[in-house]
Amino acid sequence: MKRRLLLVSNSTLHGGGYLEHCQQEIQEFFGKQVKRILFVPYALHDRDAYAKTARGKLQSLGYEVDSIHEASDPVEAVRKAQGIFIGGGNTFRLLKTLYDHNLVSEIQKRVLQDGVPYMGSSAGTNVSTVSINTTNDMPIVYPPTLAAIGLVPFNINPHYLDHNPQSKHMGETREQRIQQYHEEPDTPSVLGLREGSMLLVEGDKATLLGSTKARLFSRGKPPTEYEPGSDLSFLLAEGK
Amino acid sequence: MKRRLLLVSNSTLHGGGYLEHCQQEIQEFFGKQVKRILFVPYALHDRDAYAKTARGKLQSLGYEVDSIHEASDPVEAVRKAQGIFIGGGNTFRLLKTLYDHNLVSEIQKRVLQDGVPYMGSSAGTNVSTVSINTTNDMPIVYPPTLAAIGLVPFNINPHYLDHNPQSKHMGETREQRIQQYHEEPDTPSVLGLREGSMLLVEGDKATLLGSTKARLFSRGKPPTEYEPGSDLSFLLAEGK
Ligand SMILES: [Ca+2]
Ligand SMILES: [Ca+2]
């Protein structure tokens, strides 16, 4: 399988600029052969402003940016893309818009069959997985399904957050929320990517990158922790 | 309209027991005429354990409890109910189960037409409103719609949380999430009920109760704060 993915937990790390904490990984991922990246700004309301931010940063790393919202035919834009980057925002709005424009199967085909490199950040990482069942976002719109692009056979929880024992807030912790997901039958593993971490997938090899550990939740098993640099390729074999 | 509602932000306040912080309001709300309360435990996976917890607490306040999951015919149980209490947990699971059992319209009818008192806590508060678009919960299952029981013409965000300026977490604040909802067209107001607060609705009168302020978000307007005791009846006229 030609699949190449860079799935980032968060676009901005506290105290840093947009995509600053992962800029080296972005350059290594897209390399010198990709000249233009197709940016998908659908997760935010102000697409022009969002495209401007993404364009500014990616140009500084050596890439021209086409924003899909400026294309007259979004499906055609995906067909021609050398590389794809889907940014964060609201995951429900993003997934619904991808379905509204018939882009889900097209992106899947381009990435899995043609080997077009796919980078996602936050909501853009959520939609690359089996489903958006483990997003943190508010369901501000109703997508036709929670099933997503399915570039990997597991789910991700971006911005994974450890419980703060000092907190007096009584809403569910992130871990409790993911455990509620696993109370449902036939639910895939969920990789909790803390802010600062990202997953690099090349074919059937998956590696945890970045500066923070990741926490893996699998149905019926205790959670496990992985250090940056860990080989997580076993997750790609899930469901096989 | 006979409508009587007690919509609680959270069932447990930090340092207190289950429903302890609102037990006086519960007794005033259900009064002496209601002898039996129909409890809906669908938001949690372990319904038996949940019913036991609710039964223990409500019995101590003088009410017998029938849990709907023990009824052979849930619709019939709603038809016979003297009072209804829907508990918290996962809002998506709760709403889906209410639709699976054809309970949404039946509960609506009993509360709005027959005046059966309805108490909700957290997810049980979410499902009493226009829609669950402003739940904090993870979308662990896919309900047939986000439209809810519609006992009031606005939405609520339970467990409303102020941004902690010390936090280094970069996920959206609660206020940002609600503002993203209001970027969508024709979205109703959202009452942010902080933990410790609750809304009492009697006919066309709504009053904020409890120990904490509430924050109201209306599309295209700056947020406003309301003290406990505030008359929020104007919210019931929304959309008229
Ligand atoms: Ca988000
Ligand atoms: Ca909840």
From TrEMBL, chains A, B:
One Pfam short name: Peptidase_S51
Species name for this entry?
Megalops atlanticus (Tarpon)
Where can this protein be found? Cytoplasm
Q: Which reaction does it catalyse?
A: Dipeptidase E catalyzes the hydrolysis of dipeptides Asp-|-Xaa. It does not act on peptides with N-terminal Glu, Asn or Gln, nor does it cleave isoaspartyl peptides
Q: Which PANTHER family match?
A: ALPHA-ASPARTYL DIPEPTIDASE (PTHR20842:SF0), PROTEASE S51 ALPHA-ASPARTYL DIPEPTIDASE (PTHR20842)
| Any GO MF annotation of the entry | dipeptidase activity
**According to its UniProt record, which protein family does this protein belong to?**
Belongs to the peptidase S51 family.
Q: Which InterPro entries match?
A: Class_I_gatase-like (IPR029062), Peptidase_S51 (IPR005320)
Q: What is this protein called?
A: dipeptidase E
Recite the UniProt keywords alphabetically.
Cytoplasm, Dipeptidase, Hydrolase, Protease, Serine protease
Provide the function of this protein.
Hydrolyzes dipeptides containing N-terminal aspartate residues.
Known EC number(s)?
Answer: 3.4.13.21
Q: Which domain of life is it from?
A: Eukaryota
Q: Does the keyword Cell inner membrane apply?
A: no
Q: Name one GO biological process term.
A: proteolysis
CC annotations in GO = cytoplasm
Major location category of this protein: cytoplasm
